[in-house]
Amino acid sequence: MRRLSDSELAERTGLRTLANRLLYQGVRAGVSAGQQARSRFAAARELIPTERLARPEPPAAFDLTLTEEQALMRETLRRFALDTMRAAAPAADRGALDPDYLAQLSDLALETVAIPEALGGVAIERSPVANVLIAEDLAYGDMGLALAALAPLGLIHALSEFATREQMSRYLPAFTGDAHVDAALALHEPHARFDAHRLATVAVRDGVGYRLRGAKCLVPLVERAELFGVFAELAGEGPRLFLVEAEAPGLRRVAGGHMGLGAAGLGRLELEGVHVDASALVGGSSDGDTPAYDHARAIDLARLGLCALALGTAQAVLDHVTRYCNDRVAFGEPVSHRQAVAFAIADIAIELEGMRLLTYRAASRAERGDSFHREAALARIQCAEKGMQIGSQGVQLLGGHGFVCEHPVERWYRQLRAIAVLEGALLV
């Protein structure tokens, strides 16, 4: 709007006054939104007595049979993925989110399923298995849109897992109000040989709080989020999680173009001596009620979230190429009658089943309270490697159609390549 108001076209057409007025209203609305975000979190300071979410009662044996509630949830989300997300995905991948899609997404109220009833949500149990199913079903519609929808949920899960009662009471009720709140986790860093357990972003005590310095990349919703969960190295304690509100002085947000996941709004966070209060340290209380922050567990849960996204997108590829190859006729018969084509589709199905079983097993162990570090690592390797393979094979099976945007497989291919790159974007 500023470029328009300064242009020769505005002068020639007499639109400069209108453009300046719209520019003023836009800036005013932006400032108002920023003030509303700050007051939204500040208004929830009253401590609300609440019990932490319990773990579901584990079955006697490993069982993948869905409960009645899970089956109903999957049916609802799969319908939303097919009817709403698939239609919105092409434009969203170019950065244009449909307002109708956002309204329907808000109606799902995904955030409430992770927030205790005492804080305005509907959650009773903390279930990584259910969260994996949610991510998988939404990614079946589009991985970029799914990541954008679930990024706030990732931060909510981190708070419900590790936060103090004060932190939960201050921040979680904001996600259950009428106004949608965007939030995201920021872990990945823009340097070679990144290690999620040895962070270059540092937090230094300054007497009344902490100062954060460093940079994060591949952060979802970087321009829209009102609250970030920033992972940083705290001297003497290792990696910790800090809550940073978007208007904090010294926090710079930079949008960036990426090969895929355009709908997720990925970008960089630059922290130039950002000051946060002592209360911003997640799990920083020693009151005996707050569990100790477990960085390794947080990373493993985040990796399961990415695996779930890979499952949904890979399933979408399999279903699409199966229909395409059955319908595509060449030399008088469907191309799926050719042995090479049939075997390629079978390979996709086999690798996808391996991805799913590894992911579900790791999520099941996490839900039971068992160690799942090894299982999460195996699932991550399988989903990163085989997910890229499935995307590439899907493009190959469509032939020339795999190269054009008329079919969604090229977009899914670009998204599946992100699984090996992303780190810490979605915690289940």
How would you summarize this macromolecular structure in one to three sentences?
The chain is α+β, with helices and mostly antiparallel strands and about 425 residues long.
SS elements, strand count: 9
Computed over alpha carbons, the radius of gyration is: 23 Å
How many helices?
Answer: 12
Residues in β-strands, percent? 5-15%
Question: Helix proportion of residues, in percent?
Answer: 40-55%
Low-confidence stretches: 22-38
Oligomer state equals single chain
Termini Cα gap: 39 Å
Q: Which sequence of SSEs, written as H and E, runs from N to C?
A: HHHHHHHHEEEEEEEHEEHHH
- What is the structural class? alpha+beta
Mean pLDDT comes to 87
Please provide a written account of the structure.
This protein starts with a helix and ends in a 12-residue tail after the last helix. Helix 9 runs antiparallel to helix 10 and helix 9 runs antiparallel to helix 12 (409-416). It is globular and about 75 Å long. The protein is built from twelve helices and nine strands. With 428 residues, it is α+β, with helices and mostly antiparallel strands. The model is unreliable at 22-38 (pLDDT under 50). Strands 1, 2, 3, 4, 5, 6 and 7 form a seven-stranded mixed beta sheet that branches. It has helices at residues 2-5, 8-13, 16-42, 68-93, 99-108, 128-141, 143-162, 165-171, 295-327, 339-368, 373-397, 409-416, and strands at residues 183-186, 202-205, 209-219, 227-234, 238-245, 251-255, 267-277, 329-330, 333-334.
